[in-house]
Prior knowledge:
Arc Repressor Mutant, subunit A; 3 domains; alpha/beta; Rossmann fold; binds adenosine-5'-diphosphate; two-stranded antiparallel ribbon; single chain; globular
Amino acid sequence: MSSTAPKKREEDKSLDLALRPNVFSEYIGQETIKNNLKILIEAAKRRKEPVEHVLFYGPAGLGKTTLAHLIAKEINTQIRVTSGPAIEKVGDLASILTNLSPGDILFIDEAHRLNKLIEEILYPAMENRSLDIIIGKGPSARAIQLELPPFSIIAATTRIALLSSPLRSRFSGGTFRLDFYKKEDIEKIISRSAKILGVLIEKDAVPLIAERSRFTPRTANRFLKRARDYAEVHGKGIITKDLAQKALELMEIDDKGLDSLDRKVLDTVINKFNGGPVGLTTIAASVREEEDTIEEISEPYLMQLGFLERTPRGRCATARAYEHLGVKPPKTEQQKLI
Ligand code: ADP
């Protein structure tokens, strides 16, 4: 299934890198977070200490990794990048931590996928820079304690609820939730990206791409790139509104920015399960997609649009969702439309 969702794919990596803001002033939106981070950075600089540990959470593609890199640039320090699933064994973490230089930032993406054993090693490392590990097995096993250089951990997750509370409480610098962007901010991001990529885009094509970009910078950048390709093949290389529209149609993006997976999810809830409530596992089986993809990618956007509600008994489609799919809502939902 071709999803246009903002989850990072191979083709995104180089695009992400090329378009990643290099200074805070280029990072559009998320003002409250930026203001908090600036204070955190300034305080650390004055105390001549590493920044405190920070946790970012929110849907994929909203700029968590970018913020981690910006913090590193701002304090002029190295950033080492890893991810929850990459740290499989205690030894992996020990080797990463002992190789840090004083002041380094360790960025852990997908922190919710750290295993519990690793988390337990991380607590003392974050709290008092001590690495407690056991070497060897059986009667000859020895516990050793190593002192680590001063360092900061910046972690990112799309699933904060899966992080254990002891781990969450170790982020002394703060836990920041990234929200979906405003349409105007996405427009600014598209214009900035077009300049960097050297793409010519007509003014009225920008809002069209923006309103279908799931309020997400990564998706906006991807659509811009696809629209450029389309304009090169079918036009004169300039993205007009018409060409942008056709490029989006080719990707099966509708006027609300839903892709085929989003629509399948809604269709399942509405047409197969009478609007819900229906459980995530059932939806996933029905649309033949992984639960994680639905929970991390489709649902946040469908909920942001007010198309889907999460209730204790399962997911329910709202009157707006019925309207969007052109299906007559049941009476109770119809009343909500008035
Ligand atoms: P996440 O880590 O949350 O998945 P990233 O930080 O990798 O997201 O962001 C994806 C891409 O979106 C970045 O490479 C960057 O080009 C763009 N981006 C994200 N946030 C912003 C922003 N606030 N301003 C401009 N571009 C952004």
